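Severity: low
Component: inverse-folding endpoint
Summary: output formatting inconsistent between runs
Steps to reproduce: submit the following structure tokens with default settings.
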């Protein structure tokens, strides 16, 4: 029988493939490692292959395109309505195969290595900025417990030294401040 569409459920080490015929009948249901999957698809007729857009999908999509397949990445939210029964990897692969057949199904473009690198740099940068802000806020809270008020902006905080600057914050007058409990002697 002629394979009409293929759905592959991606995992870290194992991949589940379901091939459907023209009438939607399951023609193949197999479990592979990455190397076994690429060997199997290299010997398979050129087909429409659907992958869920997740980690590793862009690499595998590019590899399958090099083999001559028509590969489409589909967002998980668009695959979910096609899942028929209890969730498992083969059921997910079958749902992907059915979803990819739809003419109006939206797909995610397969990214190049350069696009993935740039996206990774932006994500790491965003995380660093949010972590930096969280640490600055935590330090400000600790120092506020000691009566020192600091800047609210990270860029302003670089110019504030020890909370003595009048522009960023005020240090309480030492006469009104509580005695230092940690002072020796």
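Observed output (run 2 of 3):
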């Amino acid at each position: 029988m002629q394979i009409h569409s293929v759905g592959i459920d991606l995992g870290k080490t194992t991949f589940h493939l379901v091939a459907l015929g023209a009438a939607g009948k399951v023609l193949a249901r197999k479990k592979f490692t990455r190397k076994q999957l690429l060997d199997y698809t290299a010997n398979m007729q050129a087909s429409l292959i659907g992958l869920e857009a997740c980690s590793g999908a862009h690499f595998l999509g590019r590899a399958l395109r090099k083999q001559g397949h028509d590969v489409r990445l589909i967002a998980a939210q668009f695959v979910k309505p096609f899942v028929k029964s209890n969730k498992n990897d083969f059921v997910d692969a079958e749902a992907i195969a059915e979803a990819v057949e739809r003419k109006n199904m939206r797909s995610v473009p397969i990214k190049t290595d350069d696009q993935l690198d740039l996206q990774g740099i932006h994500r790491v940068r965003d995380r660093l900025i949010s972590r930096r802000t969280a640490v600055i806020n935590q330090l400000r809270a600790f120092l506020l417990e000691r009566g020192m008020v600091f800047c609210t902006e990270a860029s302003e905080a670089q110019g504030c030294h020890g909370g003595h600057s009048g522009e960023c914050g005020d240090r309480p007058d030492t006469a009104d401040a509580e005695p230092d409990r940690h002072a020796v002697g």
